[in-house]
Structures are given as C-alpha cells and as structure tokens.
Amino acid sequence: MAGSGGGVSGRGGDASGRGGAGPSAAVPQRRCGRGAGAAMSEPGAAGPSPAAIQVSRIMRPDDANIAGNVHGGTILKMIEEAGAIISTRHCNSQAGEPCVAALARVERTDFLSPVCIGEVANVSAEITYTSRHSVEVQVNVMSENILTGAKKVTNKATLWYVPLSLKNVNKVVEVPPIQYARKEQEDEGKKRYEEQKLDRLETKQRNGDVILPVINPEPHTVGYSQSSLIHLVGPSDCTLLGFVHGGVTMKLMDEVAGIVAARHCKTNIVTASVDAINFHEKIKKGCVITVSGRMTFTSNKSMEIEVFVDADPFVDEPRERYRAVSAFFTYVSLSKEGKPLPVPQLLTETEDEKRRFEEGKGRYLQTKAKRQAQMQQQAAQQ
C-alpha cells in the first residue's frame, strides 16, 4: 500500500498538484456527478466533501521522453495526486480522526493519446463508491492545446484508496458514505469492490518471483532486456505519514518498464496501457527500493513487461526485504514518424519464461476480445 494525499490543505480548502514542474490548480467542482457526493462545505468546517476536483498543469521539457511526448509515469503520478487529494478530503469531511488516504490499487489504465510538451494536462477526479474502509475514485485526463483550444481525452483510470490515521499509521479509519443518485450505482460499485479485493489477494499470493542477473544474454531474450533501478526513499518522496507517494512509485515503475521495452526493440517506445497496479505494503522513508522489470510477452505490435518493487528497510529496521508493489505494463514500438513498428519476438528459454509468456498471451487475448466487444457495442449504438 502506498502512502498518498500530500499537498492537501484543510478540509474543503485549496489543493495543488504535488511536485509539479509548472503551474497547478485543484478546482473543486460543485456539480455532483454520478451521485458521488455533495457540494463543498465552507473552508475549515467538517461536512460533505466536493463531488469532484480538477488538477491542471502545463507540461514542460523536463516531462518529455526521448520521443518528445510526456512520460507515461508523469501522467500516472498526476492521476494519483488528484485521487489522493479528493480521497483525503472526503475521508476528513466529517468530524473524526484525522487521516491521509493511501493508494491501494490502480485498475487497468489505457493511454489513449499522447500528451505533448506545452499542452496543459487537466486531471479530473470524482468519488464513485465508498465501502466501510475504502474509496473508489474515477480519474480522467484531458490534454489541452492552449494556443488553439483543442482538447482530447488521453487517459481514464480507476483508483482505490484506504484512509490511514495520522496518529497511528497502522490503523485504517472508517470512510464517510456517499449518496448515490440510483441504487444501481451502489450495487455496481460494490461489485467492482469485491472484484478488486479478490484480485489483490490473488496477486499477492503469486509475488515470490525475483529477477536474477544473466551472464552474456542473447538479444531478444528475457535476460537481455531485464532491468532494475535502485532508489533511496527520501523525504520528498513521502506523504505526511512518512511513506512513499503512490505516484512516485508508479513513475519509477514506468521508467524501468520503458528501459526494458527500449532494450528489447532499440526504438522509440511509448506506454500503451498499465494493467492493475497492486500496492501490497507501505514503503517507509529511509528504505531502499529496487524496481525490477522483465519482458513476459510480445505480440506483433506490443510488449508486456512485469514490474515489481521490493523494499529493503535497512535503517533502524530489523525487517526482511519484502514485495511492496506489482503490475504489468504494455508498450508499443514507434518509428521516428510516430508510426507503429513490428516488435521482435521474445525468445523464451526456461520453463518459467514459457509459462509467463502463455499467461501474458492470455491477458493479451482477453484484453483484445474486450476491446473488440466494446467497439461492436459502440457501432451498434450509432
């Protein structure tokens, strides 16, 4: 579980994007989309939280990848920031124990369109479901060309947060309920909650793998492109509770996945999607984290990369190294003109690599079938 919620002022007050490279603003919306909340209360007063907020930031050159577009990890970080702000506000909207929302999971996120340097990324977040101890937040990202006014949707994401007490970081406090416009919205939210809860448990049980170095690996093998990044967790990475922001972790994961994809293809690569990101345990300030990535599957035009984060609490902590976060990233290879390129076939050598390849193929086919079904449904509605 990753700490979240920094950059949030008092209940109902202003908030801004944390650690942004440019101007930021979080604008509370008084509309009540999908029945998820009520109008914002007066600053400093306990009461209903805002139904939605918007965080905006102009994209600057230090946000760019080598292709000149904004890093996928930067967008993931902004998505998490918006979710953390609205979740923390909502969880402190009623009189009770002060708390900070911690990121527990990010559902599959598709990168529908690249964000360019000089554009403004408008990230809107809305609470759509609450259980007793968790909050579901829907986040949309829209890029805006401030010279022409042109806008386009670039990302849609669903995040789950749990509120941790400021007095006792191991205590999960209760979440204020929201009001739904229709009973069906609550039932659908409960179904999503049960599904993500089950998937998190299943993912945690299969998290024993480690990535070992390979001597003189052949090109296009798993060992050839696998990569790791080691990072010391400092104060700037952390929330008020002293644990790593979920957005910081996701950005590091995207960087490692991008290195794996670039090593495999030797071309420009971009993030196409991120499968569910599960935050299994908190990462404390002073830990050394190892972010590791390896290729698991390739289709003709895409690559699936497994990424996990291990934490080593070596400062005043007797605890053993542990798995903190895991996810699958999908990348595509692009030409200098931005056109999709064929992806070199992944060469599997061991039984474990072959097993992971088949599992990745299953996920790929499942996603492809779901996407085709959605396209057919949209065509039938037109």
Shape, please?
A: globular
Mean model confidence by pLDDT: 85
Secondary-structure element order, N to C:
EEEHEEEEEHHEHEEEEEH
Kindly provide the radius of gyration, computed on alpha-carbon positions and rounded to a whole number of angstroms.
Answer: 21 Å
By oligomeric state, this entry counts as single chain
Q: Specify the structural class.
A: alpha+beta
What's the helix count? 5
Q: Strand content of the residues, in percent?
A: 25-35%
* Number of E-type strands: 14
Helical residue percent band? 25-40%
Major sheet description: 6 strands, antiparallel, barrel
Spatial arrangement of strands, main beta sheet: 4-8-5-10-14-11
- Runs in which pLDDT lies below 50 for 5 or more consecutive residues are 4-48
Question: What is the terminal separation in angstroms?
Answer: 42 Å
Annotation keywords:
alpha+beta, 6-stranded antiparallel β-barrel
Give the secondary structure arrangement, pairings included.
Blueprint: E1 2-3, E2 24-29, E3 52-58, H1 72-91, E4 99-106, E5 109-111, E6 120-130, E7 135-144, E8 151-165, H2 183-205, H3 222-225, E9 227-232, H4 246-265, E10 268-274, E11 277-279, E12 288-298, E13 303-312, E14 322-334, H5 351-381
Helix pairs in contact: 1-4
